[in-house]
Amino acid sequence: MEFTALLVEDSASMGAIYSAYLRNEGANVTYVQSGAGALIELARWQPDLLILDIQLPDMSGMDILMTVQQRYPDMSIIMITAHASIDLAVDAMRAGAFDFLVKPFDAKRLSITLRNALKQRQLIHLVANYENSLPKPSFHGFIGDSLAMQAVYKTIDCVASSKASVFITGESGTGKEVCAQAVHDSGGRKNKPFIALNCAAIPKELIESEIFGHVKGAFTGAISNRDGAATQAHGGTLFLDEICEMDLDLQSKLLRFIQTGVFQRVGCSQEECVDVRFVSATNRRPWIEVTEGRFREDLFYRLHVIPIELPPLRLRNNDSLLIAQQLLIDYSKEERKHFTSFDNKAIEIITHYAWPGNVRMLQNVIRQMVVLNDGEVITSRMLPIEMQQENGVKAKKITSNLFVHGDSLNMHHASSLLQRLSPHVVDRTLDDAQVGRGLIGEEIEPLWKSEKRIIENAISHCDGNIPKAAALLDISASTIYRKRQSWAQVLSSNVN
Asked: What's the Cα-to-Cα distance from 298 to each of 190, 257, 286, 404, rounded to whole Å?
């Protein structure tokens, strides 16, 4: 097995012997004789294994052990000493050392310890990789374990260490700034500034100054020199929210800045150079903005290197409930209330509501309920009246559409769909549907037409999303595609 090792041993003769032992085990060895030398090497690169003498001429090996554990917690460390004691060994192990060897030791003893340390390291990596493959219920400010959000988390993980520009799209309230912050916090720039600028919130006359800064006297009101967002973000991330709102003239200056890293403050001829990573966002369709002449195509390609599209809350399965539960805990603590949970009807409405304002709307609703009510459980009656009404109206509308021809196949699938949408109004709407069957008479039509109506109504309800409609109808998407093909053939033969 091949691995890298850093040996820290003050005795040149013992160092030569132990280096030979390590090379025989397949190690690429770097050998130093002092603590200072060890810290210099560790700053340059991190070995798989650190073999560290406790007694060094310039500092204690225990101090180095503490430093390494803080800076490089995944590194495997073996402590060695000629002055062994039980207390010293216990202290070293508690501080994070994998094992403790007493000098002099032979090649066999070192070999066993090395193999055990490397096996443990491999096991730790396997566990970490497995944990990373599991659905994450939360991620750098996001809450949600839906497949749609897992894909977002994975993309952020992949691009975090890169300098490539990231372009975030999504409806208002989906968390675009949270996503930009997550890109920053999960990468190598996390200890550097994260500067956010909302291009839609700044007057056109001032936005150039906000980005690049200005010098005293550059315009009326410029009473002193001022750093812009570009200067403030040096070494870190510059987040340009609502980038499609930027004026075309300024877009050309931004393009040059992105290409060269060089810009000029307003009113100044001197150029400045900074190192920033660009993350942009918009709630518009950026390519439509390009085709209609409102956004420069060359700037689009510079910014749109890594696209991340945030899904709306209505397409995130049960994430709305997970977010609502966390918000309820947070807001109850802030408002000194005692709410801990939702009742079943409230859960049903929260889970199936469309949330046109996405997470921002959900935040407002939960805070409103906490502020205006008291108790331990949020009930459905505490929800905004429009949410309660929409839930009932949606269930009634779907029921009347699905039951209009009243055969047994309609009843089975419509009931299944309705149970998923709003169980607490199912009984009433099923009764209404039964009455409707008696009112429309005894007209009978072919079974495939009733089945076609059910499926097409479900697809329409799901805004054309066939896999989602199939899930609600308890059938596979391939079944829907196959049936639609057969219907087309039937209709075509009837025409002929």
From this structure: 29, 13, 12, 54
pLDDT score recorded for residue 257: 95
Burial class (CB within 10 angstroms; exposed 0-12, middle 13-18, buried 19+) of 319: buried
Map residue 356 onto helix, strand or coil: coil
Between CA 51 and CA 118 the distance in angstroms is: 13
Mean per-residue pLDDT of the chain: 84
Which element (helix H / strand E) includes 166? strand 166-169
Could you say which residues of the chain have pLDDT below 70? 1, 84-86, 128, 130-134, 391-444, 492-496
Q: Which of 337, 339, 323 is nearest to 377 (CA)?
A: 339
Specify whether the CB–CB gap between 41 and 50 falls below 8 A: no
- Backbone dihedral angles phi then psi of residue 19, each to the nearest 5 degrees: -65, -40
What DSSP string describes 68-113? HHHH-TT-EEEEEESS--HHHHHHHHHTT-SEEEESS--HHHHHHH
pLDDT at residue 494, as a whole number: 65
pLDDT digits over 230-248, tens only?
999 999 999 999 999 999 9
**Do the Cβ atoms of 472 and 420 come closer than 8 Å?**
yes
Distance CA 261, CA 397 (A): 57
With helix as H, strand as E and coil as C, how does 268-305 read?
Answer: CCCEEECCCEEEEEECCCHHHHHHCCCCCHHHHHHHCC
What is the pLDDT at residue 404?
A: 45
Q: What whole-number distance in Å separates Cα of residue 357 and Cα of residue 361?
A: 5
